[in-house]
Amino acid sequence: MSCRKLRWLVIAILTCCLAGAVLMPASSARAVDTTSWFRLLSVDRNLAISLNGSKLPVKAMRIGDTILVPFSVLHQAWGAVYATSAAGSALTIGSRHAVWQGMSATYREGFVDFPWSVAPVMSGGQLHVPLQELMEPMGAFVGKQASTGDLIVAYSTRWQKEPWLRQGQLAYVQAIDRVPVNLKRVTTTRKVVAFTFDDNWDAVAAVRIAELFHAYNGHCTFFVIGTNVRMHPDAIRRMVQLGDDIGNHTFSHPAATNITDATFVKQMQACEQVLNGMGLTSRPYFRFPYFAEDRHLMQIVTDQGYVTIGSAWTIEDTGPKRSVAHSVATIRRFISPGTIFVAHPNSMMTYDAMKAILPELARQGYSFVSVSELLRGR
User: What does R_g of the chain's alpha carbons equal in angstroms?
Assistant: First the structure.
């Protein structure tokens, strides 16, 4: 490209940017970036709104097939800021801006125009905004829960700078049923196996395991303890960056059968909250510490929006018999399509066992999948 053409291109880009700045209504306050937290917003058939599982005192409204929520909900969930001027209206979430004029049929986000099925409306003295039409172009996960029909929107403004934080496992939040299940294997003829790893006391071993699976074009699932997430956030980020699933294994690893129901719920919520602060979630996967579970406790897990993931076999890497040879022999003995194995990256021994067995399984034609990939039939 000639210098003359390059100069005109730069001038054109600057002109577009300045035009956008002129058209953007001035906000009376900067967007509040509490939004780096992951937030799961749901609207049920009765238009009740819940944020991370807690009901809010306001309700949504429905116009035709479109769900609109009060602006205050967007502010509470993602720190949204709303401003108006002679140039029009602007709603800011993080670094993203939706700009429109009056009852316009479209809004602009960046340099792209998007349609409103219903334009934002004032009701009860507050702006109401179409939820799905606004949040999907922002990069949110939007879906419907199969068992209830609830509209689900999951988002964190951390995703704006690090889009890989948008976890693929969110698609399975839609599949949660009211009937408790304990998934231990999936019936399939495909040669797939799901290795899952609990606790992660040794962050170095856990990351090396994640990278090992990545080297085989595979994934695994880590059921994490909140205290360990707090101590080793970079390890969790690396797992997610490599495409692995993250599940909830409580905050401090108590046996659920030895604590009250209220304490058990707090343990799940505290683990989730630590991940939320990183723009991540453990939803919808939960595993009981020590596999200490019963039907009643599994119903609590379901009511909290999770599905219980068990395992068909443990590779026995924590007991007195633990050794690389013993773990490898256990996997060889019980491997079959659709199996969920449980292991513990609490020492480098587990990494060494995986390093020994994965090449052998790969030669047999096995693929290594996360729980989400197992469920969707990869």
Answer: 24
CA proximity to 108, closest of 214, 207, 24, 33: 24
Which domains, ranges and CATH numbers included, belong to the chain? 28-166 (3.30.457.10), 171-376 (3.20.20.370)
Whole-prediction pTM: 0.89
The alpha carbon of residue 22 and the mean position of all alpha carbons in its chain are separated, in whole angstroms, by 36
The phi and psi torsions of 351 (rounded to 5 degrees) equal: -60, -45
DSSP tag of 27: P
| H or E element that contains 106 | strand 106-109
Query: In this predicted model, what pLDDT tens digit does every residue of 219-265 receive, in sequence order?
Result: 999 999 999 999 999 999 999 999 999 999 999 999 999 999 999 99
Check residue 294 and give its pLDDT: 96
- Within 138-239, strands assigned E span 141-144, 151-155, 182-183, 192-199, 221-224
Residue type at position 358: L
**Cα separation, 246 vs 364, whole angstroms:** 27
Neighbours of 236 (CB within 10 A): 25
Q: Tell me: the pLDDT tens digits for 64-83?
A: 999 999 999 999 999 999 99
